[in-house]
Design a protein that fits this description.
The protein has 392 residues and is of the alpha+beta class. The chain has 11 helices and 8 strands. The chain has 3 domains: 119 residues, Acyl-CoA dehydrogenase/oxidase, N-terminal domain (Butyryl-Coa Dehydrogenase, subunit A, domain 1, Orthogonal Bundle); 105 residues, Butyryl-CoA Dehydrogenase, subunit A, domain 2 (Beta Barrel), CATH 2.40.110; 139 residues, Butyryl-CoA Dehydrogenase, subunit A, domain 3.
């Protein structure tokens, strides 16, 4: 891997930072939108990104992109994450990072014409309908049914942890079309209009005090056959493509760098903010975390570098995901402990140090090693596909 950015990449990073400082009023980072004001702010900002051609910067030109390198795209995502700005068409960049690339790989020409231009223009938001109450890490155990009826499929079942369901135009869903097939063989992948009759949702209130996740219910929801992505009963292969895109983001490291910088600045401005009994330990922990952040950053950029070379990262994306999410939790734990009793105060307390942002990070990162595939799943992928170890 080449660890150097080109002069053009450095110039682009500076341009992105200047744009973000001027155009983005600030947000919550990795937490899904949960109110109308946040949603309007994110949509306005993403339209501005689209107008500059940055929303889908690495997409091919025929799909509305600029055909930029994946390194440029990673730079864009890292800086947006640092500024706590949205990164494309729904929570976690569902449209630009997951749905769009999956449609490019597996979609028909008609699907590419229908779904890609609105994403590139910033005109549509997407959410994800993968997890179910009894199918999370073992995603191939999904039980939502999709029954073929003429030129349509009828979906029945429930999804959970649907980020931003109340604010999404579309949802990408996996459902079981052959209940008698082995569990990886009977799944199909659908692109579903969230305005379809029979779809409803219910908020899930989180420990952070926000409600960006939802339970989503499908009651005889009719989906046209032309909204099937890939082949019937072979949706697992589309799903794994999507999961690789989901796990390869540099945004977690960008987000963590911001929290790290805020903690260091707070300690510098407030000398007595840290626990007085362990100054040496505090300095050592901060130094260790800064090194880890840099390691995580280059693991993420390695994924982009491989994509730039035309390769398909798989275990590399899992390595990046596992390291970054576990690092986020380790740093959050360190931060609240460094702040002592004040680290336990939430953002709703006027006494909370650093406006409670580090306590919010601690609560927010609790799910990081579970969502998008648990750390155990990531290690299995690294062991089997990276190291060639047997399954048993």
């Amino acid at each position: 891997m080449d660890f150097r950015f080109s002069d053009g990449d450095d110039t682009f990073r500076s341009e992105v930072r200047a744009f973000l400082a001027q155009e983005w009023p600030g947000g919550t980072g990795d937490a899904p939108v949960d109110n109308d004001d946040e949603f309007r702010a994110e949509r306005t900002f993403e339209k501005k990104l689209a107008q500059k051609g940055w929303l889908t910067i690495a997409w091919p030109r025929e799909y509305g992109g600029q055909a930029a390198t994946h390194i440029r795209q990673a730079i864009m995502k890292e800086e947006c994450a640092y500024f706590r700005a949205p990164i494309g068409g729904g929570p976690g960049g569902q449209a630009t990072n997951l749905v769009g690339p999956a449609v490019m790989v597996h979609g028909t020409d008609d699907q590419k014409r229908r779904f890609l231009p609105p994403i590139a223009a910033g005109d549509v938001t997407w959410c994800q309908g993968f997890s179910e109450p009894n199918a999370g890490s073992d995603l191939a155990s999904v039980q939502m049914r999709a029954e073929r009826q003429g030129d349509n499929y009828v979906l029945n079942g429930m999804k959970t942890w649907t980020s931003g369901a109340a604010y999404s135009d579309w949802i990408h869903v996996i459902a079981r079309t052959d209940p008698d097939a082995p569990k990886h063989k009977g799944i199909s992948y659908f692109l579903v209009d969230m305005k379809s009759p029979g779809i409803s949702w219910r908020q899930i209130h989180q420990v952070t005090g926000r409600s960006g996740f939802y339970e989503t219910f499908f009651d005889n929801v009719t989906v046209p056959r032309q909204n099937l992505l890939g082949e019937e009963n072979r949706g697992w292969y589309v799903t794994t493509t999507t999961l690789d895109f989901e796990r390869s983001g540099v945004h977690r490291i960008g987000l963590l760098r911001r929290f790290y910088d805020e903690l260091v600045a707070h300690l510098a401005d407030t000398p007595h903010a840290a626990r007085p009994d362990q100054p040496h330990r505090t300095a050592m922990r901060l130094a260790e975390h800064r090194i880890e952040i840099e390691v995580g950053r280059w693991l993420a950029y390695r994924v982009a570098w491989l994509q730039h070379r035309g390769q398909i990262p798989n275990y590399e994306a899992s390595t990046s995901k596992a390291f970054a999410t576990e690092l986020c939790q380790r740093f959050a734990n360190s931060a609240v402990n460094i702040l002592g009793l004040g680290g336990g105060l939430s953002q709703f307390s006027y006494r909370a140090p650093a406006e409670g942002r580090l306590n919010f990070l601690y609560l927010m990162t609790l799910h990081f090693t579970i969502s998008a595939g648990t750390s155990e799943i990531q290690r299995n992928i690294v062991a089997q596909r990276g190291l060639g170890l047997p399954r048993d």
